[in-house]
Amino acid sequence: MAGRYFDEWTVGDHIAHDIRRTVTETDNLLFSALSHNPQPLHLDAEYAAGTEFGRIVVNGTFTFALTVGLSVGDTTLGTLVTNLGYDKVTMPKPVFIGDTLRVETEVTELRRSNSRPDAGIVTFRHITLNQRDEIVCQCLRMAMLKVKMS
Questions:
Q1: What class is the 6-146 domain?
Q2: Plot region of 79 (φ>0 → left; ψ -120 to 50 → alpha; else → beta)
Q3: Where in the chain are the domains?
Q4: How far apart are CA 68 and CA 127, in angstroms?
Q5: Which stretches make up the MaoC-like domain (predicted)?
Q6: CA quadruple 6, 10, 11, 15: dihedral positive or negative?
């Protein structure tokens, strides 16, 4: 099992996730189409060329989804009860096709569940960086995790 149980975490734990992902044109196109997002900044090269960015900007919700996805293997894979929510999602820099993204995670809070004695809530701070070490996405994720059975 790759993910950790609630009681295996401590506040301040930090992970630099090994998996990286280079964003492709197909990623952006499919995600935008699947989510019914017709924003020309994400899909129309001619339109995007006329913006301050000068090229297509990757759909921000794809970047956010990839942020969470790249972290799952080391954090909650097999130990997750449910994700309870996301907070403070910011995207301080744009992502472009061809950028390679990586994620770092820090545990910022731990608390036992009041309603489930077999679970606890971990707050993860995920930070996504591009190949230039610029932060392109960050968020807090509150995840309810199983307690390790002894």
A1: alpha beta
A2: alpha
A3: 6-146
A4: 10
A5: 11-123
A6: negative
Question: What pLDDT, in 10s, does the model give residues 55-66?
Answer: 999 999 999 999
**95: helix, strand or coil:** coil
C-alpha span between 99 and 94 (Å, rounded) = 10
CB 85 within 8 A of CB 5: no
To 10 degrees, what angle do helices 60-75 and 25-34 make? Answer: 100
pLDDT value at residue 137: 98
Cβ burial of 149 (10 Å; 0-12, 13-18, 19+) is: exposed
- Comparing C-alpha atoms, which of 141, 145, 50, 132 is closest to residue 95? 132
